[in-house]
Each structure stands twice: as C-alpha cells, then as structure tokens.
Amino acid sequence: MDVFYSSAITPKLISDLFFGKNTISFQSCMTQLFIDHFFGGSGVFILLAMAYDRYVAICKPLHYLVIMRRWLCVVLLVVSWVGGFLHSVIQLSTIYGLPFCGPNIIDHFACDMYPLLKLVCTDTYVTSLLVVANGGVICAVVFLLLLISYGVIWNSLKNVSREGRRKALQTCGSHITVVVFFFVP
Predict the structure, then answer these.
(1) DSSP secondary structure string, 127-143?
(2) H or E segment at 149?
(3) 92-100 contact pairs (CB < 8 A, 24+)
(4) Cα 66 from chain centroid (whole Å)
(5) pTM: predicted TM-score of the whole model, two decimal places
(6) What are residue 112's phi and psi, to 5 degrees?
(7) What confidence tier does 170 reach under pLDDT thresholds 50, 70, 90?
(8) Of 84, 104, 103, which Cα lies nearest the Cα of 92?
(9) Is 169 buried (19+), middle (13-18) or exposed (0-12) by CB count in 10 A?
C-alpha cells in the first residue's frame, strides 16, 4: 500500500494546510503513530515519576535531597522513555503487518489506530483487543498508582497542621491538574 488518502488535512506539515495536500504515505503514517504513542506513553510514566517526587517531597522532606539525587531523576526519565518506546513498538507491531485494502481513505485529521484498523482486509477483533489492552492496561495501572500515591500523601497529612496541609496540597496542585487533564478526557 503506497498512500493513505485522508479526507481531512493531515498534520504532517503546516504547508499541507496552505497547499491543500491531504495524502500521507504509509511509512509517514506509521512514523506519526510511533511518535504519538511514544510521547503519550512517556508522558504517562513521567506523571508517575512526578508523583513519586511529590511523595518524597511531602512525606520525607528531610530526606528529599538524599533520595532524589540526579542519578535517580535520570533513571526515572530513562524508564519513562523506555516505557513509551515499548508501548509504541507494541502498538505499531499489532498493525504494521496487516493487509490493507479498499479506498485507503481515513476520515480523520491524523493517522490513528482505529481508523487504520477499519482499512484492514481481515478480521481485526483480536488486534483491536491487543490495542485496547496495551493502552488500557498502561493507563489503568498508572492511574491506579497515581491514586494510591495521593492516598498515601493524604494519609500522611492527618497529623499535620492546617497550614502544613495547605502547603502540601498546594505543592501537589499543579500535578493533580495535569493528571486530571491527561486522564479525564
């Protein structure tokens, strides 16, 4: 299969918007899928690393500099990248070798897994389950771990003064906002 034709303008290049080009090659589509899933998966794992940082800052403030050394921050970053990479490779490996047929038109702004699965000539039930399982399990586990971390933080604040509790929750406010914006939609 050489080219996917999208009925919407692809975000591949800004120039596509001006010139009305609305085609993207199969390799470009796979690259776009890889990058999307890589950054999405890495972002989820970075949110988890940030939750650990908040936990250490609030529950073990005197040990923060000992625990959160530079090498641990680098390890947490590399682990989030590896997690995003593995997620992306698994997602792409489920769709890359499938036979495509039909008009190769997707009615979406960008290449995404489900519109591509609609173009496959064979039954995609198992492939769809693998796609959902890969993304769903990662999101569910990370969200559960985030909830647990904030439960632990909240529990540790029971014996803290009202002012101390306010400062601790203020420290977590931006992270909770990002988590809500990431997971709720």
Answers:
(1) HHHHHHHHHHHHHHHHH
(2) helix 125-156
(3) 92/30, 92/33, 92/34, 92/37, 94/127, 94/130, 94/131, 94/134, 95/33, 95/120, 95/127, 95/131, 96/30, 98/122, 98/124, 98/127, 100/1
(4) 30
(5) 0.78
(6) -140, 165
(7) confident
(8) 84
(9) middle
Containing H/E element for 106?
Answer: strand 105-106
**Residue pointed to by tokens 């591949």:** 12
The answer, yes or no, to whether residue 57 has pLDDT greater than 60, is yes
Which of 91, 92, 115 lies closest to 103, judged by CA?
A: 115
Q: What is the pLDDT of residues 102-158, one digit of tens each?
A: 677 666 667 788 878 888 888 888 888 888 888 888 888 998 999 999 888 888 888
Q: Which residues contact 128 (CB under 8 A, 6 or more apart)?
A: 114, 117
Q: Other C-beta atoms within 10 Å of 146: how many?
A: 20
Which residues, at least 6 apart from 20, have a Cβ–Cβ distance to it below 8 Å? 9
Pair of tokens at residue 139 = 């999101």
Supply 162's token pair: 């009202």
Enter the tokens of residue 60.
């073990």
Give DSSP secondary structure letters for 12-36. Answer: T-HHHHHHT--EEEHHHHHHHHHHH
Per-residue pLDDT band at 39 (split at 50, 70, 90): very high
